[in-house]
Amino acid sequence: MAAPEVEGGNAEAAPIFGGPPAAPRPRKILHIDMDAFYASIEQRDNPDLRGKPVAVGGARERGVVAAASYEARRFGVRSAMPSVSARRKCPELIFVKPRFDVYRAVSHQIRSIFTEYTPVVEPLSLDEAYLDVTESLRAMASATAMAEEIRARIRAETGLTASAGVSYNKFLAKMASDERKPDGQFVITPRTGPAFVAALPIGKFHGIGPATCARMEELGIRDGEGLRARSLAFLQEHFGKAGVHYYSLARGIDHRPVLADRVRKSIGAETTFAADLFTPDEAREALRPLVEKVWNYREGSTIQARTLTLKVKYSDFRTVTRSRTDHAPFASTAAIEAALHELLGPLFPVERGIRLLGVTLSSFDTEGGRERQLRLPL
Question: What structural domains and CATH numbers belong to the chain?
Fold first, then answer.
């Protein structure tokens, strides 16, 4: 197998007799992210939608945007935004009902391309994945060239575009894939990584959410350089166990491996709303796309889940969870929605608005052995 290079990295040196062992060779990690995946599929399949602002989701008054085309994003339309707000921002917005069976089929088609280059593929959702190409199935010397070829294959075989990040760890590969969107790619080498992280605004760090970002800014941390200036003890004092992770990220360090297959204890999706929710109808409507996403990933594996957990975070950041475990696995989205409605009902009326909802499936039964890794950030 060929070992593709991340340009600018140090090649693995052959050990000299009697000398020190060779330094470990940097890993070669790709992060492939489809561009406006759901909306792009709808525009591909319906020529009348091409070049127009499209939102996948419910057009009803209490509907929620599941995905938005780049034409819609120019108006400020984003996923998880209430449909009313999206329509207000873009009066010409075209709503399209989700077709998750189609999205899932295209996702499987794309993943089959990935596995021609490496068996070490870690899907994050239907539209993105990490690939470890340190040892590739293709005789290609460059990870950058490999990313270019994969993107070309995706375009030729699906009619869709993808963006790619190329780097020596997962964090930086993820950051790199956002740099040239849509339909582009970006490389962060071991030589350029520290400077890239130093200039990165703290709000753009993958894994640092709005609440943590606000806390860091209160402490005077506004970018990677400011984060690196803080000691490990300081970060642990203010952020607990996560402080170690932030300390490493500030230095461009991320030792997490790309995991193609591992035992998974739960799968979940959650979303934060641009406007707080106050009524049961609003909450039920907002839960629907989360249920669809979680169910689609469950269907793509052999797992059967018996426990359902509802997460609710209020505007004052107070968080509550409610769970239900059945003797038999949940058999449909309708069954999950019915159970969620039962868990949700006693929480109303609310004193404060709901800013976040989450859905998690757990207590897995499996068919035929190990569970596949199913990570689903929304």
Answer: 1-13+24-191 (3.30.70.270), 200-249 (1.10.150.20), 266-366 (3.30.1490.100)
